[in-house]
Amino acid sequence: MNQEATIEINSLTKQFGRVKAVDELSFAVKPGRVTGFLGPNGSGKTTTLRMLLGLVNPTAGSALIGGRPYVNLENPGQVVGAALEASSFHPGRTGLDHLRVHTPQIGVSDDRCHELLEFVGLSESKNRRVAGYSMGMRQRLALAFALLGNPSVIVLDEPANGLDPQGIAWLRNLLRHFASEGRTVLVSSHVLTEVQHTVDDVVVIARGKKVHASSLADLRKLASRAVSVDGPNRAAIVQLAGDHQWNWKETNTGISIENVDAAEVGARAFAANIELHRLVDAEIGLEDMFLKMTSDAQAPVSLGGNA
Amino acid sequence: MIPAIHAEFRKVFTTRIWWLLTFVMIAYLGFIVLIMAAAFVLGGDEMTGGGGPQMGKQLAHMLYSLAGPIGYVFPLVIGSLLFTTEFRHKTITSSLLVAPNRTNLLIGKIVVAATVGLLYGIVAIGSVVAVAAPFLEILGDGAFLGEKETWEIFLGTVWVYVLWSMLGVVLGGLIVNQVAAIIILLVMTQLVEPVLSLLPLFWEPAEHVVKFLPAASGTSVIGGSSLDMGMGMSAELGRIEGTFVLLAYVAVFAVAARLITLRRDIG
């Protein structure tokens, strides 16, 4: 494992006045994986990332990259690439110039700017002022900035905001590719479903505290499975659920039955001679659990239970 | 340090504000000098009281010196913008990501501000001379462009623009809110110091203090105490003393900017 590229957050705390924006937060981010840093808006994600990147001083604790605080890295631009806010550009500067401004200090040539603008799909707009860029174009420019120094650690704050579906798919492949090259990728988001096809690991925070950290696979295991069923005779389906002691509830698409899979429900319905028009495995559990974890930060360990 | 300076140069010259301000400065200085030159040269004996060649030389020096006291707000503002634009557009985030050392950021900006101030100074004195000299040569008692004293004024003006833009950048580092910084600069330069400089008229001992005010020190850098430029533009300190007073302001505000504003969280 590439120790140089490991992120370690240790008991990190940031207090603004009386509010603890980040509270005793600890987690690690490993190379070769994409880690989703998740939480609702205002949960302390951005403050945590800013502490990691040396922009905000922690009240207590530490945030280390390869064992060192960001500000002590030899040439941080070649170790860590970060895109924090897609809006932080001078509107009167061209896309190209936004990158050129930083090449002297990162220690790369201006050719690298052209390469990256081509790579993120902005080469045709690179000589236009950023004022005329769409949100998606700004996200791409921010990404190009992050990649200038060919960093082994990539930190992106809400990178999918403003991207169109093609852009999101492109970003997903890109992040997977970076991880496969052994880089450390940390991506924040306030929507779990946005990153669930991208990330290997998840760290969930709410109100500045960690409520969950595991691989996505482990999170899925905790999430309750459910099957959505419907047919001409709903009463019979409800009866079937009762016979097998399944938890069920009525939804606008039929009956939702928890903790079973479609195969089992189908077999039982067939055996009971019940006609079905709909039989779908629904992964409502993951998003539901995310909402539950993050809205109920006071009691963070009630995972996997039925509501 | 060289990469930091290189980056700061690119930041200044990749946006339009530097040349927009240059044009405004040229137009503004040219206009004021045109009016003053016209008033004194064409107004003739009524305005100057009929002075002859000696008076003509003094008039030339007075007009050439105008770039300082009238235009010094331009290097102050362009200097302050080096910091305040970064905070206004939040580019400070990427700047500090690339180079987290905030002292280096401050030093890099001071060096670049000084260089931009040098350019502004040359342009300022150039536009003043371009308007005043033909007037004086053709309609007045001569342009006095060959005089050593005249060139001392030119060099003093360029040098004081360097000092003003350095003061501007450290003030911008202390007051990073762009609107606040510009309002404070305008109020200080257009109201507070002009009013304070009248204080000795009412209470004589105040003159020992007001000569150390920034604009008064700046005037001293241009004129030196030997030169009476008339128009109430008295230079009480010598060129060297004036320089050191302004550098002292720069040093004080630079330290304050580093210890107060630049220590804060960037959020």
Strand runs of chain B, count: 0
Contiguous low-pLDDT stretches of chain B (5 residues minimum) are 225-233
N-C termini distance of chain A: 40 Å
Number of helices of chain A: 12
What characteristic shape of chain A results from the CA principal axes?
Answer: elongated
Total beta strand runs of chain A = 13
Uncertain residue ranges of chain A: 298-307
Helix content of chain B: over 70%
Multimeric organization: heterodimer
Labels describing this entry:
heterodimer; A: 307 residues; alpha/beta; six-stranded mixed β-sheet; 12 helices; 13 strands; B: 267 residues; mainly alpha; globular
Structure description:
The complex is a heterodimer of chains A (307) and B (267). With 307 residues, chain A is α/β, with parallel strands linked by helices. Chain A has helices at residues 45-52, 76-79, 95-100, 103-106, 110-119, 135-147, 165-180, 192-195, 216-222, 234-243, 262-271, 284-295; strands spanning 7-16, 19-29, 34-38, 60-65, 80-83, 153-157, 184-189, 201-206, 209-215, 226-230, 248-251, 254-258, 278-282. In chain A, the strands form three sheets. In chain A, strands 5-6-7-3-8-9 form a six-stranded mixed beta sheet, sandwiched between helices. In chain A, α5 crosses α6. Chain A is elongated and about 75 Å long. The longest helix of chain B is centred in the middle third of the chain and has 38 residues, at 102-139. Chain B has helices at 2-13, 17-43, 45-48, 53-64, 67-71, 73-88, 91-98, 102-139, 148-174, 178-196, 199-202, 207-210, 214-223, 239-259. Helices cover 78% and strands 0% of the residues of chain B. Mean pLDDT of chain B is 88; it is low at 225-233. Chain B has 267 residues and is mainly α. Chain B is built from 14 helices and no strands. Classes of the chains: A alpha/beta (307), B mainly alpha (267). At the A-B interface, α1 and α4 of A face α1 and α7 of B.
